[in-house]
Amino acid sequence: MELVHTIAEVRARHDAARAAGRVVGLVPTMGFLHDGHRSLMIAAGAECGFVTVTIFVNPLQFGPNEDLDAYPRDLEGDLKLAEGAGVDLVFAPTVAEMYPDGAVATSVRVNGLADQLEGASRPGHFDGVATVVAKLFSIAGACRAYFGEKDYQQLQIVTRMARDLSIPVQVIGCPTIREPHGLARSSRNAYLDGVERQAAGVLKRALDAGVGAIDAGERATDAVEARMAEVIAGEPRAALDYARVVDASSLERRDVLHGTVRLLIAARVGAARLIDNVGAQAG
Ligand code: AMP
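The joint structure predicted for all components is written out below.
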């Protein structure tokens, strides 16, 4: 496995891999890697002859009062995990390498999909995500790119962005990896102490309660969302941001559920703001 820090090196390695007939698999991350990231690398390795992991804490996607400076970092640990997962190349650029002019004048905005849910709670977040992912796709060239369903709205946005801009990257979604008590693996779980970590299992329990209501025949969106909120309210360490059920592809909220839907939740537990989601079938 090789570690590189420049865009030129990534382009050279990917050009060589493609020239040798290998499909490039790309796994974009913000580092502090865990089993969730690892599952993306394994999926990429199973389908691609050359796997690149990018590690970049992207300032563009953090709001002014968010955790950019506190965001956990551990390049040494990340390199060990990536090597163990069979990764070929790690690209860990500096902020200056990615944004040599400081602020970018060009921003990618995916209208509609980016406005609600995380987009409403974190204004500008998805513009930062779409812009850096467009940049990473441009750097990587033709490839398959692996993203987690854990960040479901991000996955939809990145998929749409690649389609809309005819970027030669196939976006592949991978299932969420969880701890045994249901908590989705996340770099931000590092903000939780032991008691909070247990308490944070409430997000998955709330999602499961929502799916249970749908499976039992509930079709009123309000009622399913209220059921999820009720479960969160039962955990004193958790404070709900939103609990929503939306169409799985458009992310639009309808009063009456039908077809394939997605239940999404965001809540604070201690210093961490956590998100999670699951799918369900409403008739
Ligand atoms: P991040 O480093 O948090 O920006 O995440 C990088 C990629 O890993 C994104 O595509 C995430 O959706 C994915 N990811 C993060 N956590 C998980 C998880 N628990 N299961 C599966 N994928 C994940």
